[in-house]
Design a protein that fits this description.
Blueprint: H1 3-15, H2 18-25, H3 29-43, E1 48-51, E2 54-57, H4 59-87, E3 89-96, H5 97-102, H6 104-114, E4 118-125, H7 127-135, E5 141-144, E6 153-168, E7 178-180, E8 188-192, H8 197-208, E9 214-219, H9 222-232, E10 236-239, H10 244-248, E11 252-257, E12 263-271, H11 291-301, E13 315-318
Parallel strand pairs: 3-4, 3-5, 7-13, 8-9, 11-13
Antiparallel strand pairs: 1-2, 5-12, 6-10, 6-11, 6-12
Helix pairs in contact: 1-2, 1-3, 1-4, 2-3
């Protein structure tokens, strides 16, 4: 027996008439009569007695009516709950540590404001771990600053960023406007953990210039690294976007690398949808696998430009002549 049979039976019991039940349910009277006969055959009971052209429910029919109302009520509640669930969107966003620290809270707030029915889960770790979670489909999309290795993932550069050399007020570099690469030799640094996109880019720079540093701090928390710079006289190479407050209050000094090789982008990353591994249409337009990812991309556009600090000296890290 089906919920439809029970709903027809309830209508007959409440109206006392096959024709009235048919009118209520917008069905034909033969359809209603057949549904009642199906129930009586299935349960081997008589549900109604006809006296003087009127229907009277039997004792067995009354028992079925009580249980049928409960069953139909539970079914209707289930349907309503699932419809409400379907109306909400679930979106799992990953972020590398730098992005998670300086950007993701604002991005998620913007997404929730633009789509109130979206339930967002956020996971923050280094680029390497975020990439693996995307490949295992544990995340729907991510925003990272590091290099994505897998050809199965699309990585769309959107938000401007730049690494800078940073020192605290008590460091001797604070009095300089220019620092040369050779001056970094043997210096005490606070650096990110392995798997970090920031660390990978800095290590490439050290290797290219044959510079050896002293790693005095190693941490997966940008705030820990910044505290080591401010309070423990360490140097660090860190995203400029993490330093807005410190730059404003002149508690640190930053040095931009003169070649621009430390300029980079935060990238929107997601699994490619096309079977051939591409993420573009025939016209070359980027395809986004879901409206949620397209929404995330639109929100990220608001943060594309890297703010330049006003009234702060344009200090430079130079290569040696």
């Amino acid at each position: 027996m089906t919920i439809r049979h029970l709903k027809i039976f309830i209508a007959v019991a409440e109206t006392g008439s096959m024709s009235a039940a048919a009118n209520r349910l917008y069905l034909t009277q033969p359809t209603v009569s057949q549904a009642v006969r199906d129930l009586e055959t299935h349960y081997q009971v008589q549900l109604f007695e006809r006296l003087h052209k009127k229907l009277f429910i039997t004792e067995q029919g009354q028992q079925l009516l009580d249980m049928a109302r409960m069953a139909v009520g539970n079914f209707d509640s289930l349907e309503l709950s699932m419809q409400r669930f379907q109306e909400r969107l679930s979106f799992r966003i990953g972020a590398s540590l730098t992005v998670g620290t300086c950007l993701m809270s604002s991005v998620i707030s913007d997404m929730e404001n633009s789509c109130p029915k979206m339930d967002i889960y956020s996971f923050v770790s280094n680029t390497e771990e975020i990439e693996q979670k995307l490949l295992r489909r544990e995340l729907d999309a991510a925003v990272v600053e590091g290099t994505i290795e897998s050809p199965r993932l699309a990585a769309v550069p959107i938000v401007e960023d730049s690494l800078v050399l940073v020192c605290g007020k008590n460091h001797e570099f604070y009095q300089k406007d220019v620092v040369y690469a050779s001056e970094l030799e043997g210096r005490k640094f606070a650096i990110r953990e392995k798997g970090s996109g920031t660390r990978k880019l800095f290590e490439q720079y050290l290797s290219a210039h044959n510079i050896h540093i002293q790693t005095s701090w190693e941490a997966n928390c940008p705030r820990t690294i910044l505290n080591a710079v401010i309070h423990n006289n360490a140097l660090a190479v860190i995203s400029q976007r993490l330093l807005k407050h410190e730059i404003l209050h002149h508690s640190v000094k930053i040095f931009h690398y003169e070649t621009g090789e430390w300029d980079r982008s935060f990238k929107l990353v997601y699994l490619k949808k096309n079977s051939d591994g591409s993420s573009r249409s025939d016209s070359g337009e980027i395809r986004y696998p879901s409206p949620c990812i397209k929404n995330l991309r639109d929100v990220l556009e608001k943060y594309r430009t890297l703010p330049r600090p006003d009234g702060f000296p344009a200090c430079v890290l130079k290569n040696d002549v």
